[in-house]
Amino acid sequence: MKFKYKMNKIISAVVVLMVSVMSYSCDDDSSLSPVVDVMVSEDTDLNINSGLPNDLIIAEGNDLQNIKTVTFKAVSAPEESIVDVVFNPVLNSDLAIMFKVPFDETKGSEFGAQVVTITNKDGAVLTHDFTIIQPEPTIGVFTPERPKANETVSIAGEWFQNVVSVTFGGAPVEYTMVSSTEISMVVPDGTTLGADVTVVTPAGEASAFLDVDIGYNLYLVADFDGGGLRPLNNWVFYGDAGSLEYIIGGPTGTFAEFKWLGDTSNGYNGCQSDALETMVVESDPEKVMYLIDVNCNGAIGTVAEFLIVDRDGGNWAFRHEFTEDGWHTIETPVSAFGASYDPDNQSSGDVDPTQVNQVKVTIAEWGANPSTVQFDNIRFHGFY
Q1: Partners of 186 in beta bridges
Q2: d(CA 100, CA 107)
Q3: What sign does the dihedral 93-58-130-61 (CA atoms) show?
């Protein structure tokens, strides 16, 4: 019904406009008393006498022919902050005038209550109350696209007026308002992962994911939750191994638990991932880090050896003795791995990280008996 009412008004306005050209051209407009009964937005489903910037407005009333100017001024703005409206006089009749809601901050536009002033060619003036609604903010691009921790990043967007807060990963961050289309913020110290940046204003909020340059490429081998370059938990155990199980409840979900129960018949044991494609693109063994989350589950004295295997079948080992209980992260450069299964063999050069295609976990059979190694989130960091 509202649409039909408006269309009838518009059609009537056009018809009257044609008549106006003939009947009013010689009349004295000084006798006109322009009146606006209501202003209705055609672009948004808002209440009458309100609209968003650039909404098409139909001002309906009487004696609205030969309008010369339409202006907006925010009630709270200085007297000189008057914004002119550009409108098409062809669409102007005695019953209606159509125009778009202006918004020009350089001329003093503000959101909220407005006084709309309409003046015809003979100086007759009418005023009408109107409210400009602030649109929800939008986020466009970040500059730089992948900032580092402690680096300033620019957030480009629209409708950043009256910002209430800016958060990164849900935590408030300090920010600087550059303009209504730009905010600058500093990526929090210690950030190691990207997160959503959320800008909140009285009109709503906008979020966009900000990737963070952590200084290295992350190569997740396995997290035992279906992620990584070896996502299937199809590890095998061999030699004097006691058991290999996948258990829910580790630092980030499922973890693997490998045990040695004292058997020495083979003189070795271990468990290993499958050997498929290589995993790392950085070639410098000093810059590529091996990381793994581990726990001995109370078996203090367990001696674990972590192996990386290259495409030629070379096994490179790093040793770790558990002196306390609890989950912790082992982090060491690939250059610290010794050749030929021997962590102490540092004289035979280093493995080429770009050739690594398999990882293993073994237990030294001269450590605690029985021994346990719980492990999770095996990954490489390739610094650049």
Answers
A1: 152
A2: 16
A3: positive
CA 261 vs CA 244, 271, 347, 370: distances in Å: 12, 14, 33, 5
Q: Note whether 106 and 119 are within 8 A (CB).
A: no
Q: What is the largest CA-CA distance in the chain?
A: 117
Amino acid type, 182: E
Encoded amino acid at 95, one letter = L
CB contact burial 109-126 (16+ within 10 A = b; e otherwise)? bbbeebebbbbbeeebeb
What is the pLDDT confidence band of residue 30, given thresholds at 50, 70 and 90? low
pLDDT for 109-141, tens place per residue? 999 999 999 999 999 999 999 999 999 999 999
| Contact predicate 87/121, CB 8 Å | no
Contacts of 182 by beta carbon, 8 Å cutoff, 6+ apart:
154, 155, 156, 157, 160
Report residue 172 CA to chain centroid gap.
14
Tell me: the pLDDT tens digits for 231-280? 999 999 999 999 999 999 988 999 999 999 999 999 999 999 999 999 99
42, 58 contact by CB (below 8 A):
yes
Tokens of 79: 């007297």
At 151-204, the pLDDT tens digits run: 999 999 999 999 999 999 999 999 999 999 999 999 999 888 899 999 999 999
Q: Using an 8 Å Cβ cutoff, are 246 and 254 in contact? A: yes
pLDDT in tens, 69-116: 999 999 999 999 999 999 998 888 999 999 999 999 999 999 999 999
